[in-house]
Write a structure and sequence with these properties.
It is a single chain. With about 130 residues, the chain is mainly α. It has a single domain, classed as Orthogonal Bundle (Cytochrome Bc1 Complex, Chain D, domain 2), CATH 1.10.760. It has five helices and no strands. Helix 1 packs across helix 5.
Length: about 130
């Protein structure tokens, strides 16, 4: 019985913490909204739409005019790559067009990834 209660408590805490992370990630995404869209109906703006980012090859969002650096980077987006990129976009991928200083706070960056990664390529949530 004790093990069952502990497992239930840990499951609740993990689920609850994830929701808080996603909520913070949505708040952090406000810094990105000037250039990027995500969710149902998202379109390319100054930056590409970010639906379905995880597993997508860099420079491949249809209809967006990427820099040669981005198109030829060989990057496929996953958590590790995103966290390195978002901390210092120009340092991670010299020559890309993203004019953003980066998200320096590691927790904010991880929460931002949690928020972005919940969107499928069609803009629906997983």
């Amino acid at each position: 019985m004790r093990s069952l209660l502990l497992a239930a408590a840990l499951s609740f805490a993990a689920t609850h913490a994830f929701a808080q992370d996603v909520a913070n990630g949505e708040d952090v995404f406000k810094k990105c909204r000037a250039c990027h869209a995500i969710g149902a109906g998202a379109k390319n703006l100054v930056g590409p739409q970010l639906n379905g980012l995880v597993g997508r090859k860099s420079g491949s969002s249809e209809g967006f005019p990427y820099s040669e650096a981005n198109k030829n980077s060989g990057v496929t987006w996953d958590k590790e790559t995103f966290l390195k990129y978002i901390k210092d976009p120009k340092g991670f991928m010299p020559g890309n067009k993203m004019a953003f200083a980066g998200v320096k706070d590691e927790q904010d960056a991880a929460d931002l990834f949690a928020y972005i990664s919940q969107f499928n390529a069609d803009g629906s949530k997983k």
